[in-house]
Design a protein that fits this description.
By secondary structure, this protein is α+β, with helices and mostly antiparallel strands. The chain folds into two domains: 91 residues, 2-Layer Sandwich (Gyrase A, domain 2); 76 residues, Alpha-Beta Plaits, CATH 3.30.70.1520. The protein is built from four helices and eleven strands, in the order βββαβββαββαβββα. Helix 1 packs across helix 2. The protein is globular, with a radius of gyration of 17 Å.
């Protein structure tokens, strides 16, 4: 009997790149993704024990040694880690919290990550969301949940605008919406030479 093969929601999509690398888009599948629910003080205790991180401020994220913690609400945090580390990370967080009231949910296979970067990435994102993406308003270390086109996603700015190659963003989206968002990002970059991509489900990208 053949072993099951893990397949990402965008296995059928190749990375895309606009002219002169003004935009770059690719999936980073299977990275560990956990939702941690706990009182802020308890969450900080766990994050410090597991990753040496404080709890991030409102709408911010912190990272170290391959682990990222992003603020989602006063008692809810998104914890990201390396591929294949979700069970180890979940067990470590739960162990650190011990008897304290908490919940650690493994959502690794519910979401995937789209990496979107380049000197024109910010302008392309502005076409898809009402979130203020101006460089004065959304900066490196920010993390927000918002709507892009017709789907919800969390967005984290990983590198600032002065970085060689332009700013970089991670968009964390449900598997079922990943193909749509990938194509919407490609469409938003058409004026800079991004190749076109058509959603498998036939969704209208921007209207």
């Amino acid at each position: 009997m053949n072993a099951p093969v893990r397949r990402s929601p965008l296995a059928h999509r190749e990375p895309l790149e606009a002219a002169d690398q003004l935009l770059r888009l690719r999936e980073r599948p299977f990275e560990a993704k956990l939702i941690l629910r706990a009182h802020a003080g308890d969450a900080e205790l766990a994050l410090r024990a597991v990753a040496g991180l404080d709890t991030p401020g409102n709408c911010r994220f912190l990272d170290t040694d391959g682990i990222t913690a992003a603020w989602l609400s006063p008692d809810e945090f998104l914890v990201l880690g390396a591929v294949g580390k979700e069970h180890e990370l979940a067990e470590s967080l739960a162990s650190a919290l011990d008897w304290r009231h908490h919940q650690v949910a493994n959502v690794t296979d519910y979401y995937t990550t789209l990496a979107f970067a380049g000197p024109k990435a910010r302008e392309a994102l502005m076409k898809l969301t009402t979130l203020d993406m101006h460089a004065r308003s959304f900066v490196q270390g920010d993390a927000r949940g918002t709507v892009f086109g017709h789907c919800n996603a969390w967005i984290l700015q990983r590198a600032d605008d002065e970085t060689n190659g332009g700013p970089s963003f991670d968009l964390i989206v449900r598997w079922s919406h990943a193909d749509y968002l990938f194509c919407a990002l490609a469409h938003a970059g058409r004026e800079w030479g991004m190749p076109e991509a058509t959603p498998r489900g036939g969704e209208n990208l921007l209207a």
